[in-house]
Batch of 3 targets.
Target 1
Amino acid sequence: MRTRIGAALVTGAAIWVVGSPAQAELQGRDLDGDPSTFEAYYDTVLGITWLADANYAKSSGYDSDGYMQWATAMAWAEGLVYGGFDDWRLPKVEPVGPEWNYNLSNNGTTDHGWGITSPHSEMSYMYYVNLGNKGYCTPDNADPSGCTEQPGWGLQNTGPFANLQDRYWSGTPIEAYAESVWVFFFGSSAYINGQQDGGHPLTDYFAWAVRDGDVDSLVKEFALKTPEVAGCKNVTGTVTISKAAPPEGVVITLSDTLVSASTPATLKILAGSTTKSFAVKTLPVEIEESGTISATLGSATLSQPLTVRPMGMDSMTLTPTTVVGSQPATGKAKLECKAGPGPIAVDLSSNNEAVAYPVAASIVVPQGLQSATFDVATNVVLAKSYATIAGTANGITKSKKLTVKVAAAVSPTSLKFGGATVGTTAGPLNASLTNQGAVPFSVNSISLTGTAASWFAQTNDCPATLAAGASCSVSVTFTPLSAASKSAKLSIATSATATPLGVSLSGTGVLPP
């Protein structure tokens, strides 16, 4: 994975061209914001970027001389953060012939020896092709003991690179030799100059950092607000560049790989700005689709994954949210968008069917509509209870809690007589018992309780069975027996409640004047 983690304005220019058109241009790249110098060079054939400082491990202070064992060199490259990039590595070798063969007569396609011009060896390609140097031995030497010296051999050309050393680690072990790693000699004693060979990991060599791809882009970051979205919803994408756009602005090319998503063709960041957002539009889908959204500037492309999924539930509502047991409620299942590309099924459920439940197990929201209603039935409860009604569409669930009350209710819940002369009767004050449910219930008893119950009296017109929607009245009087404040309770027992309903009673006896 290529990762850009910092802010750096980079510009390119072809400054070092060697040989035929099939060979690379090394294009300078600015990584520190100063276009007068280049901190890296892009190889247009190998598609990799080289640090301009070929011994940056020393220059940066990581190592005193940059001369390191292989494990240390690997750790340095993998941990390097430079120019806003954190994906540097050591050069690699991709063996394409016998791993240990001095015979290089096959146009440089074997791995061990001199004159290897194959792009499968990044350092050998740099030495022979990009820089145009010659090895000490001619490419057709079968054995170093019979090496034929070439005129003009050696590191004659260092190109645009600084601090080029004589021998370098690759990041590629030699599979046929458990304790060897590919190395390349840029300049040393005659017989190994320009040679690709094996080195023991505990030997000291130099390290040169490279990374895959070009860094020639103003684009610093490209992000999507979310990596997954319901088809028909928009996703916001944001492109950020590392420096304020010039007067003419910066035009970013946008693209996608999804059938169900579309982006604007281009995005223009206006002069002086560093960021701009755009909308990725999506269409309803029957099955999940995954792909990428990309932003391209010059030769650099940044991509983000996007999954478009079938639409699911957006919300669940209940009307009312509090209901008396046995009375119905109405549910409404709302989708994230208008149903498409066909009708959408919504599965309905309750977490407490003894209290309340959807009458239907599922409903269908027709194509082009966003919601559908359904009936919720409730049962008689003997105490306040709760049930959560849920709807699920394409794996997305939304729910709403329904409160279910008992059918029997008394009002008010307190009767206050205030002061009354001792020996006289105050009142009556009335309380109503109501059946709020859809089925009748029994009135089992109406009584007075408490230590001062004898100070109060009640009469009522309540029948043995109170019909649905009906009410009856209880009248209470207060006769104080002495000058004191007393209280009691009116208790109404019904088949609709687990415990009797209660009305608190209070009054104060006062002496006559």
Note: Residues 195 and 435 are 100 Å apart (CA to CA).
Target 2
Amino acid sequence: MKRWILFVGIVLLSAASVLVSERRKVDVPPSPAPLLYLVADTEQELTRMPVSFTRMSDEEEIRIGDELARSYSGPNKERDKAPETRIVEHYLTRVGEQAARNAHRRLPYKFHYLPSEYMINAFALPGGHVYVGGGLLQFMDSEDELAAVLGHEIEHIDHYDCAERVQREQALRRIPLGVIVALPVEVFEAGYSKDQELQADRDGTRLAVEAGYSATGAIRMFEAFARLSNEREGKAKTPQEELSQMALQTLEGYFRSHPLPSERIAQVQKLIASEGWTARPERDLAVAYIFWTAKAQSALLAKKYPQAEQLAIQSLRLRPDQPKALQTLALAQFAQANFSGAAEAYRKILDIDKTSHPEIITAYAQALAAADRASALTRFQGWAESLEGGKVREVAVSMAGLELLGGKPEGARKIEDELTHSGEISAPRLIGELAWWHYLAADYTKSAELLSAAEQLRPGDTMLTLRLAWALIEVRRYSDALQMLQNSTYDPAHQPEKAMARAVAYWQAQLRDEAMIDFNSAVAGQPEWRNSDWVKPLYSSLVARSIQEMQAEQERRKQKVKAATVTMIAPFTMEEYRAGS
């Protein structure tokens, strides 16, 4: 009977707790931190348990570590690695092998790179596997910092911390070693006991110094940890910042189980003094350019064009032959109406890799035309003549387009005839490119004709539909343009331009309110539209004039709202004044 009373009591308490929790809802953002909290707290509790384990053999530890590494990486992971990942991993291996040379245990150390910028951590597996996240590497300035981090993780392996973690988890979860591969990676991402962490700091720094690195690398790495700890408190304002905040939140579990950065810095400083280590010049982080490029791409995505430009330039100073960094630089400069700079960056991409780059060839020609129509053809021809072997179609189309701008239509007619009868898969796209050159040459009827034909050959192509809408606006077919834009496929990359095309169509159709809604949406998603120096070389005079008028209308409406607000507040303020007097 007592058991039933106890059972009923538990059920009632559970129901009451559910009711209270439903009424007191708390808005908690999603984060991986709780799992790290759990692992960190569990580790702290386990260190208090009076448990001792029989030390496993090196062979058994290596086998378990290899199985865990395979389960985390997957069977095709090695084959699918991006070129940048391979470069960084090769670099980690070189530095890591130097640091591991003086480790006590002779294990087959292997070093892995996790390219996510939100992986702000490093961890080790039993048997010799060390992982470093891209998010952590991007905060490093020197190879010496990297050596200190790798030395720290090597020492967790060297001192059997990772092996004991496996044994503790096995005991806690009551699982046989044969299925230990089911352990989540967070088990190893979380820290160890304070004593273990401080010991790994000391001995890891020693490994780095014995490998020829500066001990100050460890100090500067802990200083970076301290900065990250402070950044966790900031508020996110953009989607990119929200993702960064989520990454930083994963460190809450890390900082909860690791000693404070200040304590770790003090320990290394004391170690330097006791060992008499003299200061050494730190080495540059040889792969830093990869992270500068990644930061530049993130800034470009966030429409922070000046920042993206500067980050790309910084990356290219370290390594000039980077097509990704050059393209990021070109896009950032193009968005700021620095068309000559963008053309130069595109030209460098084409010079680095002589193979065909259809989209880069077209972008190069368009940037030249936007910068200076008078010299664009000559400069493009100079590059085209340097090509070896057969020239791709994009070269001929761009050449014909630049000739069109100079008043020479013969080449465009020849290319149009060839493309129309070629039957090539790429013909609709190339016809669309030729049609846009006709648009830039102010032959809007011909542009609409070619784009209509291309769109019929490739229905649903967002770019063809968008360009056809611009051409239809010029021939005053506003309803047709709006209908096409309404029925077009959703494409986030082109949504701001679609909104501006609708805004111009509505504006020319005298539908002012509808126009202003789309205008506001367009400039919010693509701030370039506010820059007349950007609009004028890329679109018609009608588009440039319409945008200028809509900007003036936007300002007029703002002033109207402001005046109305002042009018509403003024009587109330005067009454208060009179009452007070």
Note: DSSP finds 28 helices and three strands in the chain.
Target 3
Amino acid sequence: MPARKGIAAALLLAATLALATAAQARDLLLFNGRIATQDAKGSFTQALLVRDGRIAATGTTQDLRRRAGADATRIDLGGRTVIPGLIDSHIHAIRAGRTFATEVNWIGATSIVEAMERIAAAARSAPENAWLVVAGGWTPQQFAEGRRPTQAELISAAQGHPAYVQLFYRAALLTPQALEEWGISNDDDAPPGLRLEREDDGALNGWLAGDTPSITRLFERLPPAGVAAAREGTKAFFHELNRYGVTGVIDPGGFNLTPQDYDAVFALHRDNALTLRVAYSICGPTPGKELEELKALTQFLPMGAGDDMLRFNGVGERITWAMYNNDAPTLAQQNAFVDVARWAAGRGLALTVHWNNERSAHYLLDMFERVNAETPLAGLRWSVAHLHDASPASLARMKALGVGWLMQDAMYFAAPSFIRERAQTLGVTPPIASALRLGVQIGGGTDAHRVMSYNPFIALQWMLDGKTVDGVSTRGPAETPTREEALRIWTQGSAWFAFDEDKRGSLEAGKFADLAVLSQDYFSVPVGSIGTTESLLTIVGGRIVHAAGPFASLAGR
């Protein structure tokens, strides 16, 4: 009897695999389009054939119609532009997803009136006493009013709910209900590292200001997302990225993620419900114990563990707490950082590190060179994230080490203070063209969603015009890439940091069928309009994960 059961199970498995193979064998043909293959020649073609999740061929509509299977799904692109799926090389997607279902976002809001309407809409549908939270991704410069909202405006919109609005990692606005719930009524009640702001007449205005760690601790006092909300939020956030043609992300970890915070993305992976490819990093959550914790967390987690949808991609972006945003590290702090970096190199792990300022980049590169003298870094694909005002000298040192640059559009939301600090580098910030000329590997990203918008086309527009949201120019023509170069940074460039440049980043035979059909032609619309682009059809591994407009009927196929 056991033998019969075993045979029956084997036959059932074989039948299941046969059915799965048959299901995969149905071709997908996209034709009558303008397909940017991003091959070595920068070729455009009319049609693309997908088979078993990969690109089988590109060519003319006439040719591929003949090659497609009789039962192929055929999609007439109507002349629309197709690009390789975008890969955000530095986005806190795992963290954002955990709370996305319970948040209000102000991304794209052009006035305080519109922002408050979004708060009011959430208030009308929220359970009694539920918190209303804007986690970031906005700046006063995006509003027609050119200022921050007031507490009175937030009180009116929140309709009795406690509400919390975070501005970058510098400040947060709370309603009286929120302040009361947290027991904050005067300066003595202010959490460590924070101060209560006041108007000219001395009255409290609801804003609390502080540094990054203090604002982070304040955010963590918000009611935590439950397991179900975290999963739904992650699914919703990933679908939102799909709406903008994003088919993959590299999540850099961060300074406030615990191992438990990865549960939602792993649950979706187990359920085969991921709609984009995720390469993730981890960091040690306890100050002073980073190396000990990383050793424990990676004991059975070799570099690259996982599959093509969810994969371990190394450590970062905070390597040690003491070095996070530290422009004047002590020798002891540098040595502790080197200990972690040396261990990572010895394990063959990729490493990404948050580093903002050129004025202190020499410390970081000195430490990298110390490690490189013992274990060559070339091939490990280490990266420096941010470094908006990188100098040619720093970029050259990175190139020599084989270290790449994760470049985001934080300057699009550049605060006046940030611009003042870098006044001497305006016109060359960041130096994208210089990095390209040096051959530095560059990945495009957003650093969303507390710092920036997650819209990649905003980032691409900013790469091409160098203008902040309120029109200040931070980069001139000498440091501006072409449209083709900018798109390659967001596709092939980002794929390199996930060790995937041979699998995705261009639309060539044999690569994953990860692509986006655009609402307008990225290559010809005015540069100032690129940011309004969306995807009408997003495909990951031959699977339709987003469909809108003329392709809406394809949703769910």
Note: The first strand starts at residue 28 and ends at 31.
